[in-house]
Each structure stands twice: as C-alpha cells, then as structure tokens.
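Fold this sequence, please.
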Amino acid sequence: MNDLGCCLSNTGDDSGAAAIFDQAFALNDAYLPVVVNHAKSITDSQRSREALPYLRQAKVYDADFYASDAVLGSIALAMGDAELACRLAKRAWLASFDNLRLANCYLLNCAYHDIEEAQLAAEHRFWAQTLAAPPHIADLKTSDTLMATLPERTSKIRVGYWSPDFRNHSVRYFFRPLLENHDRDRFEIVLYHDIPKGDESTERIREKADHFIDVSALPDAQLVTLIRSHDLDVLVELAGHTSNNRLNLLQERLATLQLSGIGYPPTTGLRTIDAKLLDVHIADADSNRYYAEMPLVLPESFWCFDPMQEAPIDPTPPAERNGFPTFACIGNIAKIADRTLKSWAEILRRVPTGRLLLRSISFNDPAAVDSMRDRLGKFGIAIERVDFRGPAGGDDFFASYNEVDLVLDTYPFNGGTTSCFAAYMGVPIVSLAGKSLISRMGRSILNNLDLSDWVVADETSYVERAVAGAADLSFLARFRAEARERFSRTALGNGRLFAEQFERSCIELLQAKRDGTLCYENAVAPLPAQELVRRAYGALRFGQYEAAQRIVDYCLREYPACGTGHILNTQRLTADRKYHEAATYLLDRVDGFAPTDRFAVWVNVARFYLQQSRYEECTRIVALAATAVGEDTCDLMQLRMLETCLSVRGGRRPPVTASGPATDRAVSITVLIVIDDQAAFDRKCHDVASQCPLPAGYKLNFVRCSEAHKARAYSAALREPTTDILLIVHKNIEIHSASFFQDVVSTLEDCDMLGIAGARTWDRLDWRLSPAPNKVASFMVPSDEQGVYEIQQMGMERNVVVHGLGVLDGSLLALNRARVAEIDGLAEFDPLLEEGAALMEEDLSHRAHRAGLRLAVHQGLGVVMDWRIALRNDHLGEVRWHLTQHYEFDPLVLRDDDRTIVSAPVTSPNEGVAVQGLLFDL
C-alpha cells in the first residue's frame, strides 16, 4: 500500500495518496515508510502539529531514516525557519545522495536561507560536480522508447521548452507572453510537458505550441533519446531546481544551445547549460562569480509578466481611504530573514499609525501563524498591528492588492511573481538589491517601471524609502493610475517586445555556438575544502560509498593539497587491504599538505604500518606525528594510543597487579549470560573461567538467561540473597583480561554499578552521539580484516575508572546486588523493554542513577564488543519509542552528533588488554 500511495503522489493525486497512506498506517503503524508518508500527507494538508508526533516516532525508530528529515525540513521551511530547513535537508540528501528530489530540496532551501550569494552559487556547483553519471543510452534501441516524431526540419529555428509547470503554476504568467508572441515564421516551438497532470492552463499552452509532447512517463534514458532525436537548435529548461525537474539530464548535450530561465533564480550549477536569462539590471562584471552558465543579458527584462486577466485597480491609495498606511509582504514566509524583520520593526516605529499585512499560503497552518507571531515579537513588532492572511485566488487575489499601499520586499530572496502582481496592481515595492538575480529581481522590475529610486543598497536606505513612500500619497495615487501603461511599454509587460529581444539574443548566441566563438569562464568558487570532507564523511556514514568518492574526487580537483581529502581517498585502497599502497600514496604527497593536516596523515600512515606489522616504519611515523600534534585532546589521546601500541608490539607489558582485595568471607559472583544457545553458553563459561582467574575467597556461578525473558531472570537474580556481585553479560561480549574479576571487585567498592561505556547525562536516547566530554568508553571491536581488532576509546577521560555517570552501556554491567536490590522498584523490569537489544539494561542503570546509586566506567576491563553479533531486537523501535516517551527525550531537537573515536589496530584481544593496561597505567 505504501508503494501505491507513492505512485499516486508521483502522478499528482495527492488526495488519493493521502487516503492510501491513512489506510496503510491504520494497518501497520510501526512500518517506517508508512509512518513518514502518513506524516507527510498530514503536513501537505497544512496540519503540521498533527504530523509531528508521527515524525518523532519515526526519528526514534530510526534516527537516520532520510525521509523523516526531509519532511521535517519541509515543515521548518513552512514555519519560516530556512536555516533549520537547510540543516535537515542536507542530512536527508547525504543519506540518499543520488536522490534528485532531496538534492533539489536542499538547494532550494539554501536559496531561502540568508547566506552569501557566492556560497549559494558554490552549493549549486557542488551538486553539479558530484552528480552521478547520466543514464546509459548507447544500447537503447529506438523501438524501446515511446518516440514522438516531429515533421522534417525546415529553415525555422527549432526551440524546445522543457518544464513540469505548463499548468496552473506561477511560471505560466511569464511563459505564455513569450510563447504567444514568438515569430512563427522563423521559430518552430516544441514543448516537453514533464508532469503527469494538467489543467485548463495546460490546454491553453498546448494550443499555442507547434508540438506539445507529454514526456512525464518516459524514463530518463528514453527522454534523452527522444529530445536528441528532435534535433533542437535551442532547449530552454524552465524549472531549475524546483519541484519535478530532471535537470541532471542536462549534463548531456541535448540541443545545440542549452539555456535556463524564468523558473529558478540561482544558477543551476551545470556548465553544460550554455546560458542563463538575465538582463542589464542584473548582470554586471562580477556575474561570473554567481553563475555556472554564461549570462544571456537581455536589454530590458529577464522575463515578461502578463496575468492575462482583467483586474481593476482602486485609484485611491488605502492610506488615503483608511487614514493610515498599509505595508505588506506577500509570499513564502521562509524568505523573511531576521535582518528584514529588524528593518520592518524600525519602519513601524517610524510610522506609528502604519499596519503590516502578511499574506502567505503557509498561514493556512495555524502553527505557521504562531511561528511568525513569535518571530515578529522577538523584534518588538506589536502583533496587534499585523494582519495575517491566507492565500487568495482569482479575482480576490487581485483585489487584495487594493488593500496595500506599498510592498516591503524580502532579502536576499526577492519577491518575483508576487512583486510583479503588486506592481501590476499599482503597488510600489521597496527592494533591497544584492549581487545576483535572486536579490536583484526587485531591481529589474522596478527599473523597468521607472522606479529606480525604490531600489536601495542597504537596510538604512530600505527603512528611509519605506517611510518616505508611505507618506507620499500623491505618488501612490499616481502610480496606481500609471502602472499598467508603464508595464506595457517595456519588455517586462509587453510580450511582443520581450519575444523579439529574446529571439534576437538566441539567434546571436546560437550563431556563436555554431562558430565556436561562444566562450565563458565562470568564477563560481567551490565550497571550502573541510566542508567537502565533512560531506564525504557524511555520505560514507550512510553507506553512500560511490557518492562519497565523487565528493572526494571533486574536493581533490579543487584542493589538491587537502590532506584530509587525500586521507579519505585512501579508503578505496584500504578497502582492498592495500595498506602499503595507501601509506605510500600519502607519504608521496604529505609535503604539499597544510601543516594542520599533517598530524592526521601521520596517524593514518602509522595505522597502515601497524596493520602490516611494520614496526620500524611505524615508530618513525609516530615520531613525526608527535612533532605535528597540537593541543587538541583527542589528537593527544590518539598519539598516546599509537605510542602505547608500539610499546606493546615491542614487548612491553603492564606490571602484574595484586590478586585483588582481601576478603574474610566467601564472596559469590553470579555471571548471568544472556544467550539462547546452550553450546555457545558453555563455550563462554569456559572462556571466562579459563582466562579470568578469581581473587582468593571468591566463588563464581554461571547462569544462562533466555534472550526473550530477561526481565524475569534479572528480577530473580537481583533477589537472590546468596549473590554478592551480579554480572550481566550479553552474547556479543568477550572478556579477555586476566585481572577482570579483581578489577570489577575492587571498583565496586567505590561504586554500585559498573560498565565499559556510559555517559554523565542521559539527555538523548542515543547518548553515544553526545559531546565528547559527556561520555566515556574503552573496549575492543573486531576489525573488518580477519583476526585483527581495534581498540576504541570515546570521550576525553584518561583515568581508568570514571565516576559520576548517569547511564551505562547495557552490554555488560557489574552490580553490587544488595545495593541495587534494596532500592524499591529497581528489581522490577518493564516487559515492554524486552527484545530491545540492551536498552532494558541501560534503563536499569539510569533508574539506579536516579535512585542515588553510584555508576562508573572502567576503561581497562579487556572486553571485546563484537558488532557482528546482533542482540535480540525484534521490538527495538517500540522499545526506543517507549523510553523516549518515558524520559521525555525530544528526538526532533537537531543536535550536532559527536562520532569521534580514538582507535588503533591490535593483533589480538590479549594485545588490546596490554595496550589498555599501559594506556591507563594499570
């Protein structure tokens, strides 16, 4: 059913899709894709508060499920929080990097976010330079595609327009004036309609085209083949990175000349698109910093606006009718940056009778109204002076501008369609101009209407222009009377003029392309090197290996001396166990790296040599690392771990410790092993007993615990009066330290519960991702390479025993049974936590902490945690959700995850035990 809902959504049947998702959710409210799609359908109906509980559940069930972040990002954007929307969209994109929709979502959110325009261009360049290869079409037969043939070519210039927006969409206001005024004696027009739905506007557009082809059902490779077969002189894509585009296909040459225009202000990022429509009011000498495409500079306007509908203008300004001026901002509230709100607050302070009207489709959602109220309040704008309006349609939309004296434009993302409507209805706009099309749309519109004095260069001028404009009633009335005539005399509002200017520019550009004289070097800067490295690591974390490599390749093309990029590049070698080649690769290049990168290079080379048991070379490299290390605590810990590994490889061992604390009575230790297989249980008992001798006077008892019935077994064990120390050991744990029991016994003299990992505070369910100072851990894990292990350490603690913790890893717990049992309720376990891996045990540790018991971690217990052995987790999602609700964790709080691990390879668990012993001075 989920797949059916997705299909309906993709074909534009949103109501049908919502009904299917509702039914699917009713049948299975734990299946993650259904949960998220159910939440999305609720969000799309602008009931975001109702959707949030489902998204919380989804984030708890799987914090890395990209679709949850994508929906949360759309909600954030609808609430006006473009910064949060960008962060969420980027997480989603990195988790599914070749998903074009997620890439588009991120780039579009960046356009709304208040960032430098050069950075916005860099983001688009990053997308274009890290794209997957286009679809393979070499072997595609003509009969395999739904070919729509065109008549044989004539002398006419064949122009194709490609868009998903030949319908009731804002693009129609700008495309129809061009389409309907093309010179059909010279131009043949082909339209590629790329969405599986249409409406009355689609039919009007179809009627005006020479050829109208629905390509929405064609797979990418077939679409490429089809367009190429039409032998286009010019192909104009009209969508950019907005919804439902297939912009990635323009990596290929589909037409002699490829253009982008009308639908998307920023650059596409693609150098294979020859030019982008701009005009003389937008382009300047620095334009190549913002566009991968060559600016196609039109002489008047980069677009033409004509709503093709009668709409009377009230000749009297509202300020004259009402006795007070009305300022307005109409459109997507995500465009309203904080600095714009600051300017609005000053305008309203300077015009004490003025009112502010905000109209947005977002305001159909009460949560968006509340969000905007909060934002306005933070800047001291009295809410009683603000009118919140939802969207209007048809005649009501046009008439709504008769309530407005002047529009306050947004920055850096100017109004486009809404500003054209305002000016068309005789309402002037105060617009702050930036450096590229996205922040110069207002400048273009106003200059075309002879309102250049309404274009300002800074916030102070923005305020002054608005205050003065609101007081100039005679001008407000005059502009209402002149607006339509001003439109008609320029290419902004005259389709014939615009079409002539566009056609002339196309012909000139097409000739230059054919002559080979079309030259353009863009100067769009790349993202910073370390940001590219972070994104590569992010893609790797989500298993996007090919995408990560493309990011690394791009990084190294732009930054050949980026040491961390080269380290990442060695992963393709180490994945094949080519450690010597990886070390050589880095050593051949390290002299060209920045000094700040060299420590990381030496560390990785040392690790490669350790993997090969090349101790002499490793010793030399570790010495170089010591000369390059700075003050970073993790770097210092990493260096010390490598030095310790070398010491152990050289034969050094920690001193033999005493046999443990003396006891004048028999002390009973019960080892409760959570495992179903009897033979595996027997092997673990033998291994522990043979490798870990007991201190004198201690007695050891092994008990097998069913993985599905832990609660009952734990309760019984905690109530067993003959047990002094209870050890809970899961099947993924191996114990190798000969001093394990004496270390446990001695440590439990100063604490009540002990583990191998934990955190000081449990403020998020996944506490292992909390900041380094909050957590502590030291254990071994098997490496991917057979017979090799990694010793790993988290946190910043160098003491072997760390006290004051609030939660412990549940894979291994040592308890002072009597102290735990005497606390009311601690021996009781919630059966809902069964089959949730080791979360029942983590909950026990936290309950013990809240009851006043002392929790600690011992970093030298010589334990291997085998990630290859999965604990029983049939109901892990439900258990995580239960604990999230019980402890009131908020999974929707977007935190910075710390995944830093200090590690080094060891040849065996016994070697790892020795390394731990020297590392912590045991």
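The chain has five domains: 2-129, 142-298, 318-490, 529-630, 667-919. The two ends are 59 Å apart (CA to CA).
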